């Protein structure tokens, strides 16, 4: 009996079944130890490397495409904002220019006189006049007057009327008599059909330099007889817009008719890193001669 107990162990048959056979646990542990010592097999390593390579190639293409798309979108947005701001600036100033006092003889340059709207509003003036006695005196319909030495433009029909040195239709208020304003010299070529006059603030130039791709803005003062071209040439030019595609910018002027206002058309294309945006604006000139 003792022999049987030693051979089969103590306990019930059920307990003895749950016990591992002698040496079985040691065998499994030795297999695990050998696997830890050997690590991955060559086939497993090659498979992992191939999978990582495929994932890396596919992932890099996706990431590269995504970054390229983000960069192109960002460039397009920057070009749009630059073009929009430049057009807004040009529209605001061209919209209030002296009627017909515009020169677009070069399609990449525009010169035009600008109105001093503040001079009218600050003095409560209507900008409409009646001739008084001679051709050198006018009266605003509001019966208010402009300050002495204020420059005014009357009945410009072309650029030369505004820019001519000897026969410029720009007059200076030399004396105020009651509600009347004396202009010092006779009005050239007769009165305005609509009896309008405009205080003059200065002259502006937008000029495109094809070598640099930059559109610049300059401004000069106006007198009754100064050389406007020379004044603009010597004025400081400030960059207004860059990245303009060569040959894409143009200014064109269409005079007013009985059915529509005068209009300035502005066209240009912005180009940066292969991204291009086209801009087109038709700017109505608010005032009439």
Ordered list of secondary-structure elements with their pairings:
Blueprint: H1 2-8, H2 13-18, H3 24-38, H4 42-95, E1 97-103, E2 109-115, H5 117-122, E3 129-131, E4 137-140, E5 151-153, H6 159-163, E6 170-172, E7 175-177, E8 180-182, E9 198-209, E10 214-220, H7 228-234, E11 238-241, E12 250-254, E13 263-272, E14 275-284
Antiparallel strand pairs: 1-2, 2-9, 3-4, 4-8, 5-6, 5-9, 7-8, 9-10, 10-11, 12-13, 13-14
Give short descriptive properties of this protein.
7-stranded antiparallel beta sheet; 7 helices
Shape verdict: rod-shaped
Quaternary state of this entry equals single chain
Low-confidence stretches: 1-8
Mean pLDDT: 86
What would you report as the Rg, rounded to the nearest angstrom? Answer: 43 Å
State the order of secondary-structure elements, H for helix, E for strand: HHHHEEHEEEHEEEEEHEEEE
The number of distinct helices, counting runs of at least 4 residues, comes to 7
What does the main sheet amount to? 7 strands, antiparallel
Alpha-carbon distance between the two ends: 136 Å
Strand content: 25-35%
Structural class: alpha+beta
How much helix, percentage-wise, in residues? Answer: 25-40%
Task: Please provide the count of β strands.
Answer: 14
């Amino acid at each position: 009996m003792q022999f049987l107990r030693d051979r089969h162990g103590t306990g019930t048959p059920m307990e003895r079944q749950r016990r591992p056979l002698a040496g079985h646990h040691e065998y499994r542990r030795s297999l695990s130890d050998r696997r830890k010592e050997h690590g991955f097999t060559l086939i497993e390593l090659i498979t992992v490397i191939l999978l990582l390579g495929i994932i890396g190639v596919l992932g890099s293409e996706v990431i590269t495409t995504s970054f390229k798309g983000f960069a192109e979108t960002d460039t397009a947005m920057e070009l749009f904002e630059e073009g929009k701001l430049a057009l807004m600036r040009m529209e605001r100033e061209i919209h209030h220019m002296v009627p017909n006092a515009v020169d677009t003889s070069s399609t990449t340059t525009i010169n035009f006189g600008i109105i001093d709207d503040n001079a009218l509003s600050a003095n409560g003036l209507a900008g409409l006049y009646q001739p008084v006695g001679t051709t050198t005196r006018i009266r605003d319909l509001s019966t208010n007057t402009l300050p002495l030495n204020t420059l005014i433009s009357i009945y410009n029909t072309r650029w030369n009327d505004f820019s001519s040195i000897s026969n410029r239709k720009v007059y200076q208020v030399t004396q105020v008599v009651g509600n009347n304003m004396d202009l010092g010299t006779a009005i050239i070529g007769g009165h305005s059909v609509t009896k309008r006059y405009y205080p003059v603030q200065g002259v502006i130039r937008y000029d495109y330099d094809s070598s640099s791709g930059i559109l610049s803005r300059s401004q000069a003062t106006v007198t009754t007889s100064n050389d406007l071209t020379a004044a603009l040439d010597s004025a400081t030019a400030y960059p207004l817009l860059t990245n303009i595609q060569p040959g894409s910018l143009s200014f064109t002027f269409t005079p007013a008719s009985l059915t529509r206002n005068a209009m300035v058309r502005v066209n240009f294309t912005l180009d940066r890193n292969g991204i291009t945006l086209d801009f087109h604006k038709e700017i109505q000139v608010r005032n009439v001669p």
